Amino acid sequence: MTSTNSSAILSDASYARHSLAQIAFIRAFEAKALALTQTKPPSVLGSMHFCAGQEAVPLGAVAGLRDDDQIVCTYRGHGWAIASGLDPRAVFAEICQKAEGINGGRAGSALMMAPDTRFIGENSIVGAGTTIACGVAMANLHKGNGRVVVVTIGDGALNQGAVSEAFALAAARKLPVIFVVENNGWSEMTSTDDMFLAKRLAQRTAGYGIPSATIHGTDPIVVRDSFAIAAERARNGDGPVLLECRVPRLWGHYNRDMEHYRSKEDRRKAEQIDPFITLSQRMIDAGLMTEREVEELREEEERKVERIADVVMASPDPVPEGLLDHVVAAPTDGRPRVTGTKEMSFIEAVNAALRAELDNDEAVIVYGEDVGKGGGIFAASRNLQREYGAHRVFDTPIAENAILGSAVGAAISGLKPIVEIMWADFLFVALDQLVNQASNIRYITGGKSGAPMVVRTQQGATPGSCAQHSQSIEAMLAHVPGLKVALASSATDAYALLRAASADPDPVIVIEARGLYQVRSTVELTEGAEPVGKARLRRPGKDVAIISWGTMVDPAEAAAEALAEEGIDAAVLDLRWLNPIDEEALAHVVGEAGGRVLIVHEAVRTGGFAGEIGFRIQELLGERMALSVRRLATMDTRIPASPVLQAAVIPNARSIANVARALAGKRMIAA
Ligand SMILES: Cc1ncc(C[n+]2csc(CCOP(=O)(O)OP(=O)(O)O)c2C)c(N)n1
């Protein structure tokens, strides 16, 4: 472990003095914030996580970095935000959830973001920032701008899967990332010693080939110089570094922590290495400051904080007007120009759409497991690496959180990642990056930033596919505000929807149908893309409307054809988008069919999206006409591998026709 001796401070006197003032400022800043949560009643509500004792890490790090290097940090990020150069008043206002806060009160203390600056943001999901930082670094490499990304985690976060995935991706792609472990000896209420056998946590990355060091995080000179060395290495193309910064946790885990689990002795030891005390003592010992000057410096910084707090607390709270703005971007109304048509299979259409996007925009990158050299296990990206280069089309470690998290980071940074998650079932090991991360960027930043990324995946049962490779999961994704979800039911739409997703400024998940990959249809090749959220009427009809998406659209159409032979006129609407929902198309097709509607999906019944669509129809039309709404879905069961068993639980053209016939029969009786 490295530390400087007292004499080193003489040659760095002005930096040391500046650091002491910054530590005093951040300490006073947080003490004031803490006090505001402790008034009766509290002046500020909610949790706050303070960096008291850890201040020298952010300020030292920033001193060792280039001015445009970026920061991704944790919920314990007040010090990082201030050291990054954000206006302390705007930071304080955000902590107090005020309108003038950097996120207008949408983030609060633990999720501040400003990706349009060098401060990418905090993260309240332990470890999640690490894969996002990888994506920011990927964008830096892509642009060749020489920027380095610093991502901080606590010691406990080292045990998160996402962090291991970030190490793997950063190592595989030699990303310019500095991983920082702020080891304060505690993870919430659990002592670090109880969770690790290793005495130096920095050893963790040895197996990844990532060099590391353990340093005194209380010494701003050591921190600055260590970061400068790590940054130079990363900037030179030598890949990531990990710095374990040993720091004391002077206060509780958060503002209401009574620390009943912590011994007095442990707290006393922490106080002994308080960076304000140790640094000021060294300044005094070196004859650079007197005790009185130290005291005056501290009082001066406290006065600055008091002035900020007074202004902030007198400033207005956010207003509910505009509350729903920036959940997603405002809808667009683009019209693609058809440049030709071609008959192709579903998977060829995906390949053609990827190719069009790569041609269109240098910012498009395509990656995932086996996506690069191998061209994807279903050949979606076949030949693309050869044609567009390994810097734009590449393989990743088997690390779904790293794939999605890096896509978030790259998207925040101006790239357009189109990533593949091989099977929809695998999304579950990494959902955090969609549900907690991608979905929040636009909302929290009030539209200043977004995460324009596309996630391609495929789902559904095919003969022999096991229960972990056959689920239909669209409802779980469509439930999340901030995410958009499309399902393609043909080659035609595989192309159109992927192009639409790529043109959209928000995170979009395009769910393909593996069972249809070899099915051919005529694809309209286009310049530009249609806007998101448009359904496609496969067939008009007056007697009953069948609404479906993905794999069930073809069976619905086959059912409608069979019913036509019986004299029943059934409409088929391919909804295509579950979020946003095309309400106009929905209301129209149901209205035309006299309110008789059948919703069909391959996903299981309970919690399936038919429930949402049925209620939406009720809300849209319930006061205007009598409605008769039915649904047909896979039974509430695990999906068996045997094709015989699969056929017994999944809807098909015959079962769809049966329910639709019964619905249409009602009309005939009424007539
Ligand atoms: C994925 C996840 N799991 C658990 C939590 C709850 N939690 C918040 S902070 C924390 C402790 C983290 O400890 P450490 O990584 O050492 O960082 P420190 O808080 O000490 O800075 C826990 C368990 C969370 N926010 N996210």
TrEMBL record:
Q: Which Gene3D superfamilies match?
A: 3.40.50.920, 3.40.50.970
- Pfam family name, one: Transket_pyr
- Please report the name of this protein according to its UniProt entry: 2-oxoglutarate dehydrogenase E1 component
Keywords attached to this Swiss-Prot or TrEMBL record, sorted alphabetically, are:
Oxidoreductase, Pyruvate, Thiamine pyrophosphate
Its biological purpose is as follows: E1 component of the 2-oxoglutarate dehydrogenase (OGDH) complex which catalyzes the decarboxylation of 2-oxoglutarate, the first step in the conversion of 2-oxoglutarate to succinyl-CoA and CO(2).
For activity, the cofactor(s) needed are: thiamine diphosphate
Its domain of life?
Bacteria
User: Which Gene Ontology molecular function entries are recorded, alphabetically?
Assistant: oxidoreductase activity, acting on the aldehyde or oxo group of donors, disulfide as acceptor
